[in-house]
Amino acid sequence: MFKSLLTLAAVCATTVVSASPVTVKRDDFGLEWISKDSSLPKVVLYNTGGTIVSTSNYSTIDNVNYGSGPRVLPEYLLGNYSVILDKAQIAIVDMSKAGGSSNLNSTLYFNVSRAANEHLCSEGSDIDGAVMFHGTNTEEDTFFGVDLTLNCSKPFVATGAMRPESYISNDGPSNFYQAVAVAADPKARDRGALVVFNDRISSAFYTIKTNGNTPDTFKALEQGNLGACLGGQPYWFFESSYPVARYHFDLSGMESGEDLPHVVVLFGSQGFDTSLMYAAVANGAKGIVIMGAGAGQLSTAAVAAAGELKSQGVPVVASLRPVTGASPPKPFEQNYISSGYMQAGKARIQLQLCLATGMGWEGCRDVFEKDMREVIYNDATSYYFS
After folding, report:
1. Are residue 190 and residue 79 in the same domain, yes or no?
2. pLDDT value at position 19?
3. HSE on the CB side for 290, CA within 13 Å?
4. pLDDT (0 to 100) of residue 2
5. Cα separation of 328 and 195, whole Å?
6. Which residues of the chain have pLDDT under 50?
């Protein structure tokens, strides 16, 4: 099996294997479009790697120790599952690096966002949407970062796999097909970035990884799905709308490859050691997210430390430890910022973007708290119950 896999992967480095005639054309962006039909929608694929292009040297039932086998190319998937080219023309942008997604940092979502803004949002662009392959361990960091920085209504769809390509019942090809079908669908516009896994379509703003092993893992537990894929085709439950509290950050003034401000996440357990907060700042952190107990509750000592860091211009954001729910703002002014419905990972990304775009402490607080404060206290600037 693996010998044939290696052979086909090598072949697909230069060509696409398909039962139907395939053409390759270059456009003004320098993208090469793989196509059966030039009238089909154009979908650009950002390949950052991950399980979807991984294999195992051990077994066809190995879904835990894979990654040791040869990586397949997206061209291999298009060749083996050429039905994908019945939905769209595909251009591939390789952004993959050695190592799993746990080794990635904010530079990746910055670079993916810059590419997507150029390809999708440039005036006169005829590209209909984008799909991103990504390792699932940190995929929500990247798709959330792109969601908050994409400056047009075209669909950006994140997908991947929980089982490697070498697995006996892999999920990658189905996810790939469905992601392309969603990205090519005009009804996918004006919703923000989307996540397509396991027949479900959900909002990148709310979606988190809920299970470390099973294909049915990416979910918006409280907010629900936006649609489902039936027969591979997207069926939308709702008309187009953007998530409440979704903020847009403009990174166009930053240089490619520039690092975003360093933000660390700390676990707010019993006996939380506040020296970790000071140590993080001493090591270069410009912001801190603490997974507070319950609905983002911080210890008295942590609140005091947050006040000292606030005076230095270093924001502390309190997120929640449970898998779902919210960390709502208090009815009085705090030394820290409440994350609302954002889990710690997403709160970290948003705080990075707040700092990268020059917002001060109060500006960061408003981005996180304004919408929820307005609902709870009937005034986005009020710190007291009416």
Report:
1. yes
2. 46
3. 31
4. 37
5. 26
6. 1-19, 386
Cα separation, 176 vs 173, in Å, equals: 5
Q: Is 15 a catalytic residue?
A: no
Q: What residues make up the domain containing 67?
A: 23-236
- Answer whether residue 200 is part of any domain: yes
| Cα separation, 302 vs 317, whole angstroms | 11
Q: Which residues contact 385 (CB under 8 A, 6 or more apart)?
A: 331, 377
- Residue pair 9/15 in contact (Cβ under 8 Å)? The answer is no
pLDDT in tens, 36-67: 999 999 999 999 999 999 999 999 999 999 98
Q: Would you state the pLDDT for residue 341?
A: 96
Residue 8 has a pLDDT of 39
For residue 11, what pLDDT is reported? 36
Q: Which residue has the tokens 């600037």?
A: 381
Residues 8/96, Cβ–Cβ less than 8 Å: no
CB 306 within 8 A of CB 277: yes
Indicate which CATH number applies to the domain containing 314.
3.40.50.40
Kindly state whether residues 81 and 155 are assigned to the same domain: yes
Q: Which long-range contacts (CB under 8 A, 24 or more apart) does 306-311 make?
A: 306/277, 306/335, 306/336, 307/335, 309/277, 309/278, 309/281, 310/335, 310/336, 310/361
Give me 267's structure tokens: 């676990």
Q: Which of 48, 51, 159, 357 is catalytic?
A: 51
Question: Could you give the angle at the alpha carbon of 16 between the alpha carbons of 15 and 19, nearest 5°?
Answer: 135
One domain for residues 232 and 267: no
